[in-house]
C-alpha cells in the first residue's frame, strides 16, 4: 500500500500500542471524534506488535457498536523499518507503548526522521530529557513536533499552574504554587502494571538523569519575585483543603521546570510555522499574562493513614528499585509492594468510571510586586484554583492526548515548526484548556485572599 495519497500521509492519526491497557481507552476516546461533523480527524489507523490483540481493543473500544473498518498496522519497536513505515503513513503518532525508557526512543527517531508529529503519555523525566538532548535540533530541521507527557502527566499540572499564575493581575505577582492532588472514588481503584513498571524503572535510572543533566548546558532560570518558599515538613496538614499531604515525586514539576526554562528563553512563546498577525498577537498576549512561580506537587488525602501508605510505597520502590533483585521482586509482586494500588490486570471499567481527581493549586505571592523586592517580606496574598476531572490514567489521559492531537490537526500552522518540547510550550496558547473543559476536565478559581502577616 502507498504511504501517501496526493503527497499527503494516508492517515491523520495512528495510535501505536493500541492493544495496551491505556491504548484501548485512547482508541475509545479517538473514536468519539472520527468522522464527526467539524472534527479534523478523518482517518485513523491502529498499530501494535500483535494485530489480533489490536483488533480486540478496537472491538472493546467500539462496544456496543460493531468495530468500525479501521486499518490495523503491525509495528514493533525492535523493528525500526516497521516504525519508519508507520511514521511515513501518518501525520501524527500517538504513542502508548511504555515504559518509554525501554520502547520510546525508536518511535521518536522514526517520527523525527519522517517529519511526522509525535505525542505520548509518558511520565518518565529521564526519557523526556534524553529525547530533548538527542533529537531537538533534528526535529526542528525536519518539522516534527515531539511532545511527551500529553496525559495526566503533565498537562493538568502545566495548564493548572498557568491558569493560577494568570489570576494574579498586576501589580500582584505569584511567588510559589503548590499543587495538591486528591484522588477520589467510592471503590478501591487500582493502577495498571504499565505505570507501576515505568515508576520502578524511573527510580532505577535516577542516576542516569543526574548524569544527563550534568552533561548538558544549564538552561536559564526564570526570575521569580521574592525568596523561595521554605521547604516545610515531610507531611503537611493543608487546613484550608482539609488534606494531609506529602511530596509526590512525579514528572509534573520537572516538566513545568522545562517549560519555565523555555519561557525564559522565549518570553513570547514559540512562533508558529505560518502564523497570521492576529495569531502572533494572540500568542504574545497569552504568554505575557503567564508568570513564573516555584512549583511543587503533593499527594493529598483526607486520611493520614493513606499518607503513611504513600510514604511506605515510595520507600519500597525507592529502596528496592535501586538494585536488580529488588526490581525483580517489585515487578513480580506489584500488588504487595504497592499496598494494593497497582495490579497486573489493571482496574475494572466500573472502578475506572467511579474515580475522579481534584488538583488544587495554592498560589502564594505579593499583592504588589514591589513588596517582593524587599527580601524580608512574606507573601501577603493567596490565590487558590482547581483542576478536576475523571479518573486520571484511563479517562483523563486519553481525553488530553486526543484533544492535543485534534489541535495539531487543525491548528498546525500556528504551532512551532518542530522540536522536542513540553505540552505547555506547544499547546499553552491554544484552546486546549477550553477543549478540556468541554470534555469534562474543568478549571476554576476557588478563592483570592489576603494573607495575615
Ligand atoms: N501520563 C499518564 O498519566 C499515563 C497514564 C496511563 C499510562 N501511562 C503510561 O503509558 C504506558 C503504558 O501503560 P499501560 O498500562 O497501558 O501498559 P500496557 O498495558 O503494558 O501496554 C503496553 C503496550 O505497549 C505494547 N508494547 C510493548 N512492547 C512493545 C514492542 N516492543 N513493540 C510494540 N509494542 C509494544 C504492548 O503491546 P502488546 O499488547 O502486544 O503486549 C501494549 O500495547 C506506561 O509507560 C505508563 O506509565 C501514562
UniProtKB/TrEMBL annotation:
The chain crosses the membrane at residues 307-325. Residues 212-232 are annotated as: Disordered. Residues 13-147 form the Saccharopine dehydrogenase NADP binding domain. GO terms for biological process: glycolipid biosynthetic process. Keywords: Membrane, Transmembrane, Transmembrane helix. The keyword Transmembrane helix applies. Residues 222-231 have a biased composition (Pro residues). One of its GO terms (cellular component) is plasma membrane. Belongs to the saccharopine dehydrogenase family. This is OLC1v1009670C1. It comes from Oldenlandia corymbosa var. corymbosa. The lineage of its organism: Eukaryota, Viridiplantae, Streptophyta, Embryophyta, Tracheophyta.
Amino acid at each position: 500500500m502507498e504511504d501517501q495519497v496526493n503527497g499527503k500521509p494516508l492517515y491523520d492519526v495512528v495510535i501505536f500500542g493500541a492493544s495496551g491497557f491505556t491504548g484501548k481507552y485512547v482508541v475509545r476516546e479517538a473514536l468519539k471524534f472520527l468522522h464527526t461533523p467539524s472534527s479534523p480527524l478523518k482517518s485513523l489507523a491502529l498499530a501494535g506488535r500483535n494485530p489480533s490483540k489490536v483488533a480486540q481493543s478496537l472491538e472493546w473500544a467500539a462496544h456496543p457498536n460493531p468495530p468500525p473498518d479501521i486499518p490495523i498496522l503491525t509495528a514493533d519497536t525492535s523493528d525500526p523499518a516497521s516504525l519508519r513505515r508507520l511514521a511515513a503513513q501518518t501525520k501524527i503518532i500517538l504513542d502508548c507503548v511504555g515504559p518509554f525508557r525501554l520502547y520510546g526512543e525508536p518511535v521518536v527517531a522514526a517520527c523525527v526522521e519522517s517529519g511526522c508529529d509525535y505525542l505520548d503519555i509518558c511520565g518518565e523525566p529521564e526519557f523526556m530529557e534524553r529525547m530533548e538532548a538527542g533529537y531537538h535540533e533534528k526535529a526542528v530541521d525536519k518539522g516534527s513536533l515531539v511532545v511527551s507527557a500529553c496525559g495526566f502527566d503533565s498537562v493538568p499540572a502545566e495548564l493548572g499552574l498557568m491558569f493560577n499564575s494568570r489570576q494574579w493581575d498586576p501589580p500582584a505577582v505569584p511567588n510559589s504554587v503548590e499543587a495538591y492532588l486528591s484522588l477520589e472514588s467510592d471503590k478501591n481503584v487500582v493502577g495498571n502494571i504499565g505505570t507501576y513498571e515505568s515508576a520502578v524503572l524511573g527510580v532505577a535510572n535516577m542516576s542516569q538523569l543526574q548524569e544527563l543533566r550534568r552533561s548538558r548546558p544549564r538552561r536559564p532560570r526564570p526570575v521569580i519575585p521574592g525568596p523561595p518558599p521554605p521547604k516545610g515538613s515531610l507531611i503537611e496538614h493543608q487546613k484550608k483543603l482539609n488534606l494531609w499531604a506529602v511530596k509526590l515525586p512525579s514528572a509534573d514539576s520537572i516538566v513545568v521546570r522545562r517549560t519555565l526554562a523555555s519561557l525564559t528563553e522565549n518570553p513570547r512563546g514559540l512562533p508558529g510555522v505560518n502564523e497570521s498577525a492576529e495569531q502572533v498577537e494572540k500568542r504574545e498576549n497569552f504568554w505575557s499574562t503567564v508568570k513564573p512561580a516555584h512549583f511543587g506537587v503533593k499527594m493529598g488525602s483526607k486520611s493520614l493513614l493513606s499518607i503513611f501508605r504513600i510514604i511506605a510505597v515510595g520507600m519500597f520502590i525507592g529502596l528496592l528499585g535501586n538494585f536488580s533483585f529488588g526490581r525483580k521482586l517489585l515487578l513480580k509482586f506489584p500488588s504487595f509492594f504497592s499496598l494494593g494500588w497497582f495490579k497486573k490486570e489493571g482496574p475494572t471499567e466500573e472502578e475506572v468510571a467511579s474515580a475522579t481527581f481534584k488538583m488544587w493549586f495554592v498560589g502564594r505571592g505579593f499583592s504588589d510586586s514591589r513588596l517582593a523586592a524587599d527580601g524580608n517580606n512574606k507573601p501577603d496574598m493567596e490565590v487558590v484554583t482547581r483542576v478536576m476531572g475523571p479518573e486520571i490514567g484511563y479517562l483523563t489521559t486519553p481525553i488530553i492526548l486526543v484533544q492535543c492531537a485534534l489541535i495539531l490537526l487543525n491548528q498546525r500552522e500556528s504551532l512551532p515548526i518542530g522540536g522536542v518540547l513540553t505540552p505547555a510550550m506547544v499547546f499553552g496558547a491554544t484552546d486546549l484548556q477550553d477543549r478540556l473543559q468541554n470534555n469534562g476536565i474543568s478549571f476554576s478559581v476557588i478563592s483570592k485572599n489576603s494573607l495575615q502577616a
